[in-house]
Amino acid sequence: MTDLTPQKPDAPIEMHADAQQHRHRSIYLLPNAFTTAALFCAFFAIIKAMAADFEVAAILIFFSMVLDGMDGRVARMTNTQSAFGEQYDSLADMVSFGVAPALIVYEWQLKSFGSGRLGLIVAFVYCLCAALRLARFNTNLAVVDKRFFQGLPSPSAAALVAGFVWLVSANKVDIAPEIFPWVALGVTLFAGVSMVTTLPYYSGKAMDVRHSVSFPKLLAVIGVGLAVIAKPELTLFALFVAYALSGYVLGARAALRKKSD
Fold first, then answer.
1. Most CB within 10 Å of its CB: which of 53, 97, 171, 229?
2. Contact by Cβ (8 Å): 187, 164
3. What is the pLDDT of residue 73?
4. Which domains does the chain have, with CATH numbers?
């Protein structure tokens, strides 16, 4: 006689699949708390820009950048990744690294161009490029080389714009004030356009801090850290300018290699 009773070994498999589905749909507090903190820093940066406190507004963008970098790492460390967290992080990034920097630089310098229309257009172009960059990143996760970003990452573009605002607001640049709007316009356009290019930028994901490094590399990291502590606005801006230009160098090198082949 055939036994029609369901076999017991199937039950744990069924429960395991249900648990995985539940985990995928769950909302986890810890990583999303970092995302919320990053979003708050960006929101507060906009408030500060409206109050003409541009130095603090720029610094808050860097705080948002640090917190944004922590939420994904915390999620991976605690095994609390979720579809909700990915979508929430992407929306928060749009505010932190798209809307907030555009509004800050517009309020700071760009609105001084004539009736403000040119500055408005440039600020919107930056914001639009950030949105396109994030959308492309979300749709190409399984396609691109994990070692490289395609186009300048939006946090780095925001750091480039906010870094210039911070550098000038802290009175660390000896340039005639009437030139500031034009330089701000150039930096904003450069950061925006760089986001939507297909230039390769090192992602840093190939680096593993658990592996040993050479003594010169260790000294270089310590030196950069000390420079950031001593002159944060100058060092951070210089670092992100170098990173933004690195994509063009890598792209030119790849084009020359392809041409020679």
1. 97
2. yes
3. 81
4. 27-260 (1.20.120.1760)
